[in-house]
Design a protein that fits this description.
- It is built from 13 helices and 21 strands.
- By secondary structure, the chain is an alpha+beta fold.
- It has a seven-stranded antiparallel beta sheet with strand order 1-19-16-21-15-14-13. The chain has a seven-stranded antiparallel beta sheet with strand order 2-3-4-11-6-9-12. Strands 5-10-7-8 form a four-stranded mixed beta sheet, with no helix packed on it.
- α2 (32-39) packs across α3 (43-50).
- The longest helix is centred in the first third of the chain and has 25 residues, at 3-27.
- The model has no long low-confidence stretch (mean pLDDT 91).
Length: 458
């Protein structure tokens, strides 16, 4: 990064901090003069902070958190470490991060970092399996298990790797994986990996762990509520019937609506409603609409997932669908990898780039993207960010983070592993943002004006 780029980045961050500060003042209905008086600083300083021309000091933040119903972390913005829309980690830098992890006193894994960003929800690692096993027994004494972790995990396999895991009943299982196979595991699933004996080299995995909706502010809110009360949010999603009954009861109790009152609103019998909540009966489509209307919620808020999935999803490479994209130039062959319907904004793909002389920016995805060059040849990525066009050569084993909605394309001949994640914005947050509408969305993202005009200019 050049000195000018660094200066511009600091200026942009100060403006974002100022916009965020103005948003907080608007939310708690403080004019600059009110904030200045309560914080013990000048109105001029408040306005300079809002304009991004003066640093928001830790002393001001501490004082604000003492006197206002806000948290210190509300004033801190996410650092943007991708000022051109992309971040690249070269394979040579990945090698420098190498560290050997021992288990039971013996080398077990070699870990290396791949690209990570302050903006992105994933924490991806390159992991070499140093432990060899000579059978496929899940109780092999050489295998050392972990206790599971909070992050979701997608894994891409290279070489001959045994994947060990515990199913929902706690039973140990082993899956015999090879190059191109993939899997997804849910949080806190105990697991481990090992290389099969007879392999020419150690097995390798690209373990892409990521937070979904529960990290960050959500996790902090649960922690502050307390573990005991936070557990109450967990509904029974073990079957479709259990899911529906749990959601119905939760929404009814949210509004302090009795079963008798619900019966009056829906014209359904009290026994009907009790049977729904006790998993004895499931509603018809028309009854579902009536129930949702009586609770003033959308039908989707009462619906269970269409599939009740296991904690581990395996996909062998020959099981995935393959297609070409886009239709107008058939630039790429795309092969889907393991995924879970419980995470609809998580997409894992293996992409083959065909040697077509065309730099049309034919890819644009509204998700965070992790990209790893799994092939043996160089590829070129071209992208457009803030009306400026860029290009970079991506060598084998280089990795990339790409911001959502950045138009881009790949040229050359090779293969890429891509994991696309929605982060915090997709899903209900996206629906809420869409409800706010495009005319107001810029203020929702970066507040620019006080919530009322003191000069009364209507």
């Amino acid at each position: 990064m050049t000195l000018l780029e660094n200066t511009n980045n600091i200026e942009n961050e100060n403006k974002r901090i100022g916009s965020n500060f103005l948003g907080i003042l608007n939310d708690i209905k403080r004019r600059p003069v009110d904030a200045a008086r309560e914080l013990g600083i000048s109105v001029e300083d408040i306005n300079l902070i809002i304009e991004g021309k003066k640093k928001l000091s830790s002393e001001i933040i501490d004082q604000a958190a003492k006197i206002w119903p806000v948290n210190e972390r509300d004033f801190h913005i996410i650092h943007d470490d991708c000022i051109s829309g992309i971040k690249i980690m070269r394979s040579s830098d990945s090698e420098k991060s190498s560290r050997i992890m021992e288990r039971a006193g013996k080398p077990y894994y070699e870990y290396r970092d791949t690209v990570m960003s302050c903006l992105a929800p994933f924490r991806p690692e390159w992991i070499l399996e140093l432990c060899y096993v000579d059978d496929n027994d899940p109780d092999n004494p050489n295998v050392q298990w972990n206790n599971g972790h909070f992050m979701h995990q997608f894994t891409y396999f290279i070489g001959n790797v045994n994947f060990y895991y515990r199913d929902l009943n706690g039973k140990k299982k082993v899956a015999i994986m090879n190059t191109g196979d993939s899997m997804y595991i849910s949080p806190f699933t105990p697991h481990t990996f090992a290389t099969r004996s007879g392999s020419k080299q150690e097995g390798l995995i690209l373990a892409l762990t990521y937070g979904n909706k529960l990290t960050g502010d959500i996790q902090q809110e649960l922690s502050s509520i307390s573990a005991e009360l936070g557990q109450e949010y967990v509904l029974d999603f073990s079957t479709k019937n259990n899911t529906f009954s749990s959601l119905l009861k939760f929404h009814r109790q949210m509004g302090s609506i009795s079963i008798k009152e619900m019966s009056v609103r829906t014209k359904l019998s009290e026994k009907n409603i009790e049977d729904f909540e006790n998993k004895i009966e499931t509603p018809s489509e028309s009854q579902l609409k009536i129930l949702a209307s009586s609770l003033n919620v959308n039908v989707r808020d009462l619906l269970p997932n269409e599939k009740i999935e296991k904690n581990v999803i395996l996909q062998f490479h020959n099981e995935g669908k393959t297609w070409v994209y886009p239709e107008f130039n058939r630039h790429y062959q795309i092969h889907d990898l393991a995924s879970s319907t419980t995470l609809p904004y998580s997409k894992a793909l293996e992409i083959t780039v065909f040697p077509i002389d065309d730099d049309t920016l034919d890819l644009k995805v509204g998700l965070h993207q992790y990209i790893y060059n799994i092939g043996k040849s160089e590829l070129k990525i071209t992208w457009l960010y803030e009306n400026k066009k860029y290009e970079q050569i991506i060598h084998p084993n280089d990795s990339i983070y790409l911001k959502p909605f950045v138009p881009h394309c790949f040229e050359g001949s090779g293969s890429l592993l891509i994991l696309r994640l929605g982060g915090k914005i997709t899903g209900d947050s996206q629906r809420e943002l869409s409800f706010v509408g495009k005319t107001s969305v810029k203020r929702a993202i970066n507040e620019s004006i006080q919530w009322f005009d003191p000069k009364n200019n209507n």
